[in-house]
Amino acid sequence: MGASAASGLQMLAVRPGIPACKQMFGSTSAVSAFGRALCTRTVFASRARTTTPGPLISSTHSRFAVRAMSQSGAQGLPIDLRGKRAFIAGVADDNGYGWAIAKALAAAGAEILVGTWVPALNIFETSLRRGKFDESRKLPDGSLMEIAKVYPLDAVYDTIEDVPEDVKTNKRYAGASNWTVKEVAETVKNDFGSIDILVHSLANGPEVTKPLLETSRKGYLAAISASSYSFVSLLQHFLPIMNPGGASISLTYIASERIIPGYGGGMSSAKAALESDTRVLAYEAGRKGKIRVNTISAGPLGSRAAKAIGFIEKMIDYSYVNAPLQKELSADEVGNTAAFLVSPLASAITGSTIYVDNGLNTMGLALDSPTLST
Ligand SMILES: NC(=O)c1ccc[n+]([C@@H]2O[C@H](COP(=O)([O-])OP(=O)(O)OC[C@H]3O[C@@H](n4cnc5c(N)ncnc54)[C@H](O)[C@@H]3O)[C@@H](O)[C@H]2O)c1
């Protein structure tokens, strides 16, 4: 399916009876402490009203959208992903950027498939089934995000031949099958035929807490394998089933270009590779399949992966104090940017690193440096 469809629908996102701030942040906000404080600020209430999701694919939701438009008389540019199908690799709970992106794409009307790391699959599916995520599955129109299918995935293995015996027999992988990148792409093809949107929201660096000077070759290569080559591999295997006009997105971090002590183990190198690959893949996938490739350089978020690094709360505080926009960064803001980037509205943007970090990347001075107060 092509990426050219764009109707004239635009909805107001805020639902009556739900505080705007709760809708804006959901459970995916970056810092609960700042979030709670900021929820009282009117700036968020007014910003929340400008979110522009579209309807889900069912006819009920289409009717809701039409009604919403005619009642509000809203004019403007829509983010309309109805009729598009997205595969989002790297969703295993409702705290990370992958989840927020899934929600934004679903709110804009896309059908959602997710790829979940095999060791995290059981708990994710059980939580989903038991309704643990129901509150955070809520979309701006009040419906719950539907995930059409959850695929087991381990993005460090391209084919089954690459999987070592100890992983094959590991009990965390027992019961799951067809989880290498090639097999997942084949299964998605068998199930759905094609996709329009590919999202890479995963990273892993086993030695992330070690300075680069102390990182082993094994740890460094593992970080690159899980966090950069995994994107090359996903695009390589999914490109043949991506409809022309489609788009892909990955998530990067400013440590690729500025020194962030503590983000070690080769993870800064992995993000630098990911950004460089974004440009090269934009050229290759653009010429080969008319597919756009961009990466979002996101500000700090207290996700499960980020907590493993050990100093994420400090990074969030640092950003709040020093960024041009002195506000909490919500995962939904990254989700909304992703929705824009994969939509026809961004049809001329490819090969770019887009910063969604309250502007922190532009600063050359830490305002809270003790040096400045003397
Ligand atoms: N949290 C931040 O502050 C921040 C900032 C900038 C960029 N990012 C990037 O955002 C992306 C998503 O991370 P997040 O912080 O939202 O955390 P997250 O924990 O929600 O996402 C990371 C995901 O990667 C999955 N994963 C790890 N190894 C995998 C493998 N081999 N195969 C498949 N899946 C695997 C994990 O199961 C998890 O679901 C990452 O690329 C991360 O580097 C995060």
Automatic annotation (TrEMBL):
<keyword id="KW-0276">Fatty acid metabolism</keyword>
<comment type="similarity">
    <text>Belongs to the short-chain dehydrogenases/reductases (SDR) family. FabI subfamily.</text>
</comment>
<keyword id="KW-0560">Oxidoreductase</keyword>
<protein>
    <recommendedName>
        <fullName>enoyl-[acyl-carrier-protein] reductase (NADH)</fullName>
        <ecNumber>1.3.1.9</ecNumber>
    </recommendedName>
</protein>
<comment type="pathway">
    <text>Lipid metabolism; fatty acid biosynthesis.</text>
</comment>
<comment type="subunit">
    <text>Homotetramer.</text>
</comment>
<dbReference type="InterPro" id="IPR036291">
    <property type="entry name" value="NAD(P)-bd_dom_sf"/>
</dbReference>
<comment type="function">
    <text>Catalyzes the NAD-dependent reduction of a carbon-carbon double bond in an enoyl moiety that is covalently linked to an acyl carrier protein (ACP). Catalyzes the last reduction step in the de novo synthesis cycle of fatty acids. Involved in the elongation cycle of fatty acids which are used in lipid metabolism. Required for normal plant growth.</text>
</comment>
<dbReference type="Pfam" id="PF13561">
    <property type="entry name" value="adh_short_C2"/>
</dbReference>
<keyword id="KW-0809">Transit peptide</keyword>
<dbReference type="GO" id="GO:0009507">
    <property type="term" value="C:chloroplast"/>
</dbReference>
<keyword id="KW-0444">Lipid biosynthesis</keyword>
<keyword id="KW-0520">NAD</keyword>
<dbReference type="InterPro" id="IPR014358">
    <property type="entry name" value="Enoyl-ACP_Rdtase_NADH"/>
</dbReference>
<dbReference type="GO" id="GO:0004318">
    <property type="term" value="F:enoyl-[acyl-carrier-protein] reductase (NADH) activity"/>
</dbReference>
<dbReference type="GO" id="GO:0006633">
    <property type="term" value="P:fatty acid biosynthetic process"/>
</dbReference>
<dbReference type="InterPro" id="IPR002347">
    <property type="entry name" value="SDR_fam"/>
</dbReference>
<keyword id="KW-0443">Lipid metabolism</keyword>
<keyword id="KW-0934">Plastid</keyword>
<keyword id="KW-0275">Fatty acid biosynthesis</keyword>
<keyword id="KW-0150">Chloroplast</keyword>
